[in-house]
Design goal:
The protein is mainly beta. The protein is about 15% helix and about 45% strand. The longest helix is centred in the N-terminal third of the chain and has 8 residues.
């Protein structure tokens, strides 16, 4: 059922369409938000089996409740330098068109409701083909939260 809700949100382009609940997480110095409807579970870091020949940001696969799922290092996918071993503390399991995928993150801090008035589209000055998965930028006091489109992050 959560996936059906996420399917309706995936074409969101403006602040009104982006308003809703987000899982707020950190990767390195950055704060990101993922629509809560796309999130299946949040698990502690577990052993990852490397798979040769995958994209540089695909860390490998894990066994999650009898299912083998790919795991992506979200920091590397976002163009951050490689993290020191042991800094990624959680795996955010999200639903994708091809099945479940794990996103390695440093920490998950909260689930937060964001209103349309807090959200702006990303500036055309900073929007590129390499970061088209940023749907918007939410203001939460002095903190900026980049809202991510899980589908576009996971194009592989």
């Amino acid at each position: 059922m959560a996936l059906a809700h996420y399917e309706t949100d995936k074409t969101a382009t403006g602040p009104a369409e982006l308003a809703g609940k987000y899982v707020i997480l950190t990767v390195g110095p950055e704060t990101y938000g993922v629509n809560v409807a796309a999130v299946q579970s949040i698990i502690p870091m577990s052993p990852i089996t490397r798979v040769p020949g995958t994209s540089g940001w695909v860390e490998g696969v894990i066994n999650l409740r009898g299912n083998v799922i790919p795991v992506v290092d979200l920091g590397r996918r976002m163009g951050q330098p490689e993290a020191a071993p042991g800094t990624r503390g959680r795996i955010l399991v999200v639903e994708h068109e091809k099945g479940q995928v794990g996103l390695m993150v440093d920490q998950v801090t909260e689930v937060q409701s964001l209103e349309a008035g807090q959200i702006e589209p990303p500036s055309s000055l900073v929007r590129t083909q390499d970061n088209e998965f940023v749907l918007g930028v939410a203001r939460d006091g002095d903190r900026l939260i980049l809202l991510l489109d899980v589908r576009k992050i996971l194009l592989f």
